[in-house]
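Quick one:
INPUT:
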């Protein structure tokens, strides 16, 4: 039990004064950090780190300026340039007029530092969440509506599609390899440009309806759980499922193995000899029961 003298000494302590001093120290430290970062050449230091990290490689991102903003704290990058070699292909570099990185609270699933990244490319706003963990990264796009035509330079010349697609993506990576992926995508105005199928070229296909569900299996396999193409008025209607062995850096060359059913409009049958190509497959309610092989960029029917 405390003595009367001890109680008296505790009562003599000026707690309010102690708290004020503590907060003054915190404020001074905060102001020092802000002043330091405002005058510290952070952009030049990051450029130096990038050059050192990518020394000897063809992938050398660059930017004009990087600075801090303290209202809703974030890093702002101006005129970011990413060479096509960073995507394992030749061509013009990708240019982003701005990119902002907002810090969020720590993530526990996966454990790491989370950021919200906002940018714009070709008039298309892009927003995603990124978590940097220990030897791993996670990318999250939540119900993001993307205009495929505006993103053509990112998709690559072998993937020519148009329409607005709403994407929900959750992807984890380790050492540039996809370790986990779940994807849902859908569109109501999906279009496919002319395709070459076994020597025959199709006209542009206005499919409108597009729905995709996919998930990862053992690398590099992606399981296509559901792929629906075409509404009732489309020249092609299909319902497929199967797998794709993803070739990162050249997705168009990814081998595929899909099964399902497909139907063609009479106008398309006149433009392309469908019966000659698929005549060996059985039909059910006007739909060919087919299997597709080849690659993602050049699919072809495989005989039953």
């Amino acid at each position: 039990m405390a003595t009367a003298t001890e109680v008296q000494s505790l009562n003599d302590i000026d707690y309010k004064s102690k708290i004020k001093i503590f907060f003054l120290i915190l404020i001074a430290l905060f102001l020092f950090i802000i002043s330091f970062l405002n005058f510290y050449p952070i952009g030049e230091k990051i450029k130096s780190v990038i050059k050192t990290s990518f020394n000897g490689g063809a992938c050398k991102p660059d930017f004009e300026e990087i600075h801090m903003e303290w209202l809703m704290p974030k890093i702002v990058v101006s005129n970011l340039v990413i060479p096509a070699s960073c995507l394992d292909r030749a061509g013009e570099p990708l240019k982003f007029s701005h990119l902002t990185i907002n810090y969020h609270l720590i993530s526990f699933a996966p454990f790491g530092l989370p950021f919200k990244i906002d940018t714009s490319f070709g008039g298309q706003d892009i927003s995603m969440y990124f978590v940097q963990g220990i030897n791993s990264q996670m990318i999250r796009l939540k119900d993001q509506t993307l205009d495929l035509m505006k993103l053509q330079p990112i998709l690559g010349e072998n993937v020519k599609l148009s329409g607005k697609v709403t994407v929900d993506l959750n992807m984890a990576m380790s050492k540039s390899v996809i370790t986990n992926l779940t994807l849902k995508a859908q569109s109501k105005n999906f279009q496919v440009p002319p395709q070459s199928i076994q020597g025959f070229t199709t006209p542009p296909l206005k499919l409108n309806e597009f729905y995709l569900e996919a998930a990862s299996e053992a690398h590099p396999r992606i399981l296509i759980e559901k792929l629906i193409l075409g509404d009732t008025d489309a020249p092609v209607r299909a319902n497929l499922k199967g797998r794709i062995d993803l070739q990162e850096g050249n997705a168009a060359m990814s081998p595929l193995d899909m099964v399902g059913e497909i139907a063609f409009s009479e106008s398309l049958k006149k433009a392309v000899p469908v019966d000659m190509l698929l005549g060996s497959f059985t039909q059910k309610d006007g739909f060919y029961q087919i299997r597709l092989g080849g690659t993602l960029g050049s699919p072809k029917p495989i005989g039953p």
